[in-house]
Amino acid sequence: MQVFQEFEEIREKLRGLMKYIRTEKVKYDTNFTDELLSMEWKESELENDELKNYKAKAEYYIRQHQDNIAIAKLKTNQPLTETDIESLEEILWREVGTKQDYEQEFGTKPLGEFVREIVGLDMNAAKEAFSEYLTNASLDSRQIYFVNQIVEYIVHNGMMKDFSVLQESPFTDQGSVVEIFTDLTVWVGIKKIIDTINANAAA
To answer: What are phi and psi of 144, to 5 degrees?
Structure first.
């Protein structure tokens, strides 16, 4: 009851002031920058204007179909068969667009390399490929660090075709290749693994 009386008292005090409240609408111009937090495409949106670009459609399709046998093989560092290559051709040259569309965007880049660049390489598959060097007790901490940086790079980029990146950080943070691998036979073995990973995507 006391609360009701307090509200009634406030209402009576404000009653005489209501006529002074401005009723016209006030427009304010703002200039805020929108920040895109996330974007999700649905299968039905593949025909929308935003996805008419072949590259966008191809990348979207591959990310959404990583359970496809050929795409899964590329992600897990398994060599492709002729059937797998035909499957990629069906996807990229017929379902998503045409062979001409692909070549206009990516030239002669092998289909497997294009897919691997998008999905990357599975971390477990990468570690398994380099396991001989990651668990080798005869390697010192700098060498193991270097191999781990290679693993991280290939996981995110799918391959390592340009070896000039090894002359940059983080690879050089503890010394150059020549300084770290004084026994070049160790480095040759590591390079063979990288070449094999690259070759498994060259379809």
So the answer is: -65, -40
Single out the residue of 54, 56, 50 nearest to residue 100, CA to CA: 54
Tell me the pTM.
0.72
pLDDT digits (tens, 9 = 90+) for 145-164: 999 999 999 999 999 999 99
First to last CA, the chain: 82
Residue 187: Cβ within 10 Å count: 17
Cβ–Cβ < 8 Å for 31, 71: no
The answer to whether residues 149 and 163 touch, using CB atoms and an 8 Å cutoff, is no
> 177: buried, middle or exposed (CB in 10 Å: 19+, 13-18, 0-12)?
middle
Q: How far apart are CA 60 and CA 4, in angstroms?
A: 61
HSE of 29, CA atoms in CB hemisphere, 13 A:
0
177: nearest Cα among 145, 134, 137: 145
- Please, what is the angle between helix 184-199 and helix 141-157, to 10°? 10
Tokens of 19: 């006529």
